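Internal ticket - ligand job 213, zinc ion:
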Amino acid sequence: MEEEIPDPIPPKGAAAGIDVGLTSFAAIALERGTLRKVRAPKPLGKALRRLRRLHGRLFRRGERDGQGRLKTRTKNYEKTRLQLARLHRRIRNIRLDFLHKLTTELVRVHPVIAIEALDVRNMLKNGRLARHIADVGWGTFRALLDAKPKLRGVRIVKVDRYEPTSKKCSFCGHILPELPLFVRAWTCPVCGAHHDRDENAAKNVLRFALAAG
Ligand SMILES: [Zn+2]
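stdout (C-alpha cells):
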C-alpha cells in the first residue's frame, strides 16, 4: 500500500529579504514595505564583554619568557583558563539558541526568503571584520536557514554575492561606484533618498525574493 505524502503548504506571510549587518544582527525587508531589525541577544553582548576581560586576565597571569611564550602555568592561570572555557561554551549556547529561534520563526512566517550568499570563509581573511562575523554567527545563521525550510515548503533564494545590494539605491536603482564598510548611512546622489545601509541592502535583497516568488 502506498501513501501519498502531500506537499507541504508554504506559510501565508510576506516574502522577506534579509541583510545580515554589522550594527544589528539582521535587517529584514518585507513585501509591502515593512522593515524589521533584529538585534543579537543582550546576554550575548554581556558575555562577550566578560570574554574580553578574561582574555586580558589570562594573558597577565601567565608568566612569560623574553619571547612572550608561556613559562609556567600558575594556579590562577589555570583557574582563569577554565573560566574562559566555560564562558566560551555559554556564548556558543546563547548564540545557537538565538539563531535556532530566529530561523524557526522566519520559516514559519515567510514563504520565500532571500539572503545574500556571503562567502564567510573569504571574509574571514579580513581581520577585524572576521572577529565580528565569528561573534554574530552569520555562517550558522545561513546554515540553519538552509536546513529548515525543506519540510515547510519555504523557498530560500540565494542572491549572488557579486550583486551590488549595498551600493544600489533601492529607490531609483542608481549604483554608487563604491561604499566603504564604515559608511552606515548615505544619500542617493540621483534621487535624494536617504538610506540606512543595512535596510537599503535588505530592500534590494527582497527584490530577488519577489522575483522568485
Ligand atoms: Zn536613488
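Auto-summary: Residues 16-212 form one domain. The two ends are 35 Å apart (CA to CA).
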